[in-house]
Amino acid sequence: MAMALPSSSCKPHRLLALALLLVLAMASAKAAAAYLYDDIKLSWGSGCSYFYMDEDVDTLALCLDRSSGSGFSSNASHLYARYDMDIKLVPDNSAGTVATFYLMPDDVPWEYHDEVDFEFLGNATGEPKTIHTNVYVNGAGGREQQFHLWFDPTLDFHTYSIEWNPKYIIFLIDDTPIRAYKNDQARGVPFPTWQSMRVAGSLWDAEEWATQGGRVKTDWSQVPFYAYYRNFRVTPCVPSPGVAWCGDEAPESAWFDQRLDAAALQKVQAENMIYDYCTDHKRFDETGFPVECTAA
Q1: Selected catalytic residue, list 55, 111, 119, 271
Q2: For the sheet containing 176-182, what is the strand order?
Q3: DSSP string, 60-124
Q4: 229-280: per-residue pLDDT in tens?
Q5: Is 207 a catalytic residue?
Q6: Is 275 helix (H, G, I), strand (E, B) or coil?
Q7: Is 119 designated active site?
Q8: What is the enzyme's class at the highest EC level (predicted)?
Q9: Exactly one of 55, 111, 115, 207 is catalytic; which is it?
């Protein structure tokens, strides 16, 4: 809010009134600010998780200790949106731990369960951190892609995003796409289209598989482990001009293609991808590759 500076001819009582108005305006703006705990809630787990202010930014410290991991979920759900969260991962020896940021519906039978997963797999000190991504539709997942990060995600916050629109699910890190799962229902490819989803996150022990296939276990002498979440944002999907809502966008529309930087995606996948289920011959040679892995 812009306020004009008082002129030298203002009387003292007018200066005092202007000063009081400025203080009230600042206080009102601060009161109107959204806090993280207004948008998300701790939903399960250890009592050592907590909200706190970090350099005037409301932050959630998710905890894993010997008794339990912990998790949160958002209060609101959406059908098609972009979801952003700034996350700083478990430092030092995080082997066996998994932090997550994902989308899920409200409680539904598993055969209707959709889910879009970012999972951050811990590792021994100095080893690269692995990003594990997956998409579940109607209770079936198995669509894993994994990446090594090109930075240390434990030193500072980075923005992890899931863009979900009727044509793509796009995974992004600091606005750089790392994966795009395309809606190709015309060929029988499952894609979540009908139920709204809310954001969730967790920190838990997965030492049986998380680090080098379970060969490196959790060092419980290091507990408690913490991962940090802040700056949660949701941007609802916007359709092309003249279309009522995103679900009405025509399948042949190129409107959502502008949301995907194909060149940046190709570069990350060439340089940082370490696993793609669509190239796993040991897994699919006998049963056949999923439809989305085959040429149209």
Answers
A1: 119
A2: 50-54, 57-64, 225-236, 81-88, 158-164, 168-173, 176-182
A3: EEEEE-SS--EEEEEEEEESSEEEEEEEEPPPS--TTEEEEEEEE-SS--GGG--EEEEEEE--S
A4: 999 999 999 999 999 999 999 989 999 999 999 999 999 999 999 999 999 9
A5: no
A6: strand
A7: yes
A8: transferase
A9: 115
